[in-house]
Design a protein that fits this description.
five-stranded antiparallel beta sheet; disordered N terminus
Length: 209
Amino acid sequence: TALVCAPLSSRADTLVSYPFYNGTLSPNPASGVTATGFLGGNGSNAVVGIGNGGNGANSGGGKYPYILITQNSTSVGAAVSNDQYAQFSVTPPTGNGMYMTQIQVVAGRGGESTPRGLVLRWSFDNYGSNLATATVSQDWPSTGTYTFKLNAFAGDTVSFRVYAYATPTGNVEPSVRFKSLSVLGNFVYYAPYVTPASTFITTSHTSYN
């Protein structure tokens, strides 16, 4: 069985956003929502920080956070096994829940080498499986918008890990740079119910900026 709950309305709200272009790793949560910063977290071997301009494929692009791959991680599996991730947590308002519809990430490659991409996992299964993956195809400061569909109910804190992988080549920076990240969904003000249904997680590359 899977714990699910219908949203109060069909309109998607922004539960929490990370306006990275402001040069901060701090969240901008909706009223009543609590969220942590976009940080490396305990156990992460990646470097998560704020850059300005840079020596990647393209300089400029303003301030940006990045996940810098510190161990040779050229695939989805290697990114996970080498703990190359940033982590953040979202907690719904006290006494209520949230129905998370999707996570939107706007990102670009910090260097020209490929392949380079992202992996999403969450605390619901103790980060034991991939929710979705995406290949990052744009060189910074150009970015692509990557949509990870969730369609899941959370009545308590849920944590997400965003893993990154890249192919190091010469002096190319092995990183993924971020413009923004948002968790979209609806607030739920009544008790969920149990139904024999499964939650399927998919991702799509929706647009380029």
